[in-house]
Design brief:
GO terms for molecular function: nucleic acid binding. It holds the Pfam family DDE_3. This is Tc1-like transposase DDE domain-containing protein. By secondary structure, the chain is α/β, with parallel strands linked by helices. It has a single domain, classed as Ribonuclease H-like superfamily/Ribonuclease H (Nucleotidyltransferase, domain 5), CATH 3.30.420. The chain is built from 6 helices and 6 strands. Strands 1, 2, 3, 4, 5 and 6 form a 6-stranded mixed β-sheet that branches. α4 packs across α5. The radius of gyration is 19 Å and the shape is globular.
Length: 189
């Protein structure tokens, strides 16, 4: 019932999918990206030689619209509330328009770093946009979660590349054609 009410509320405030900007963070640990399986003929042991690498955590902070990922940041370590508010101020707010224009509704999950009063003031008061928080445990209503799956699949294919440029290429691979499908399956188109 609550999920249905949320989608009805979204239908009331969103007249066009080009209004929606989905923002979230995801993480990658280099150690967990190492391929762990291999194939050999029957009866021959599969032996893998690889360098030991201590895991380094890297976070990505992308913005998904109907046009694809329009801006992203790659951060060593975890995203803090300071990183998030600076990213909004420097990278996201300049791309927004006052509500009800295109790129005027920011959709976030209810993570602690997203719920600060400073974030609300920045989005609603300064940028004159709408700030919408997802229901708890409803990642299926955020198209960016599907974008993260596509990014992680891209990274799995590049499992031996430990440069930050591979994450950059993965984010740039999410273009309008993919974003359209993500928005459709999340119920916004």
């Amino acid at each position: 019932m609550e999920r249905m009410l949320f989608m009805n509320e979204m239908a009331d405030i969103m007249t066009n999918p080009d209004q929606l900007m989905c923002i979230d963070e995801a993480h990658r640990n280099w150690r967990t990206s190492v391929q762990k399986k291999g194939h050999t003929p029957i009866g021959i042991c599969c032996v893998s030689h690889r360098h030991f690498m201590r895991g380094q955590r890297v976070s990505i902070l992308p913005v998904l619209t109907i046009d694809g990922i329009i801006v992203h940041d790659i951060i060593p370590g975890s995203v803090t509330s300071l990183h998030f508010s600076e990213f909004l101020w420097e990278c996201v707010i300049p791309l927004t328009n006052p509500y009800p224009g295109p790129r005027s509704i920011l959709l976030l999950d209810n993570c602690n770093i997203h719920c600060a009063e400073e974030i609300r003031a920045l989005v609603e008061d300064d940028a004159q946009c709408k700030l919408v928080f997802l229901l708890p445990y409803s990642p299926d209503y955020n198209p960016i979660e599907q974008a993260f799956s596509a990014i992680k699949a891209f990274l799995c294919c590049s499992w031996d590349d430990f440069s930050l440029s591979v994450i950059d290429r993965a984010c740039h691979s999410i273009m309008a054609s993919k974003a359209w499908g993500f928005f459709c399956s999340s119920g916004y188109i």
